[in-house]
Design goal:
Largest sheet: 9 strands, mixed
Shape: globular
Catalytic activity: dTTP + alpha-D-glucose 1-phosphate + H(+) = dTDP-alpha-D-glucose + diphosphate
Number of helices: 11
CATH class of the largest domain: Alpha Beta
Number of strands: 13
CATH superfamily of the largest domain: Spore Coat Polysaccharide Biosynthesis Protein SpsA, Chain A
Helix content: 25-40%
Protein name: Glucose-1-phosphate thymidylyltransferase
Pfam families: NTP_transferase (PF00483)
GO molecular function: glucose-1-phosphate thymidylyltransferase activity; metal ion binding
Order of helices and strands: EEEHEHEHHEEHEEEEHHEEHHHH
Structural class: alpha/beta
Radius of gyration: 19 Å
Keywords: Magnesium, Metal-binding, Nucleotidyltransferase, Transferase
Distance between the termini: 34 Å
Strand content: 15-25%
CATH topology of the largest domain: Spore Coat Polysaccharide Biosynthesis Protein SpsA, Chain A
Length: 293
């Protein structure tokens, strides 16, 4: 399976913060926002990643992440000329995906919770073995902002509706999607919505109609943060800060995930961070020392 991070858009709701820098490069406590979605793909065991962004921002992502080799992965980059909907990612990424299945994560979504890696691994297996799509749902107080799922008595998804005025459920479809290779053909066949976009909800509705959609509900103790507003940015920073201060462990530390996945060795990582300063790299140095003991 391959992975795509969609980190485009102009971030107008965050102006003036995003007038000269991509929203996904803004800090969430101790690391750039894009680290969080990239960590999701890495936790899912995905080593080939395509990052899609705007013509003006793409080179900053390249400067930050490089070719991915320092994390034991491969990162490619693709320009999104205009933001024409989330499903456009599969059209732009068609050559990158090739004949593989694919996971899409939105660049401004943050996930954290116990057992998340196991959830991700099961999603990958279900897509690759059963050729079904897997999406995730989370209970929210403002479902009208999202794609909303309703369920039948058996607990299976009955419908998914994009930003309904009067939602029939409080379960939002979050910004993390796993699809078989057929998603490329489906995306190419979509017609723009009334908003002029290729909607990811239309993709999910297609798989639902074909009875090939599985939704995993994130538990009540799980955190899903959509950082699209100034308030949400602050809340995300406070959340990450609180968890890291309380536990002494970093959330979405890419180097640590690469180490745990055995994609890089302790010796390689030690050389990488030897001359780097700051709390983030001090943490990595301590992780390396613990593993080498």
């Amino acid at each position: 399976m391959k992975g795509i991070i969609l980190a485009g858009g102009s971030g107008t709701r965050l102006h003036p913060l995003t007038l000269v820098v991509s929203k996904q490069l803004l800090p969430i406590y101790d690391k750039p926002m894009v680290y969080y979605p990239l960590s999701v793909l890495m936790q899912a065991g995905i080593k080939e990643v395509l990052l899609i962004s705007t013509p003006s921002d793409i080179h900053n992502f390249e400067r930050l992440l490089g070719d991915g080799s320092k994390f034991g992965i491969r990162i490619e980059y693709k320009v999104q000329p205009s933001p024409d909907g989330l499903a456009q990612a599969f059209i732009l990424g068609a050559d990158f995906i090739g004949d593989d299945s694919v996971a899409l994560v939105l660049g401004d979504n943050i996930f954290h919770g116990a057992g998340f890696s196991d959830l991700l691994e099961r999603a990958v297996q279900k897509v690759e073995k059963d050729h079904v799509a897997v999406v995730f749902g989370n209970y929210v107080k403002d479902p009208e902002r999202y794609g909303v799922a309703t369920f039948n008595k058996q607990g299976n998804v009955r419908s998914i509706e994009e930003k309904p005025e009067n939602p029939n459920s409080n379960y939002a479809v979050v910004g993390l999607y796993f699809y078989p290779n057929s998603v490329i053909k489906i995306a190419k066949g979509l017609q723009p919505s009334k908003r002029g976009e290729l909607e990811i909800t239309a993709v999910n509705q297609y798989y639902l109609k074909e009875e090939c959609l599985d939704m995993q509900i994130l538990s009540r103790g799980f955190a899903w943060l959509d950082t699209g507003t100034h308030e949400a940015l602050t809340e995300a920073t406070e959340f990450v800060k609180a968890v890291e201060k309380r536990t002494g462990l970093k959330i979405s530390c890419l180097e640590e995930i690469a180490l745990m996945q055995k994609w890089i060795s302790p010796e390689e990582l030690q050389l990488q961070v030897k001359d780097l300063k700051g709390d983030y790299y001090d943490y990595i140095k301590q992780v390396v020392l613990r593993i080498k003991k």
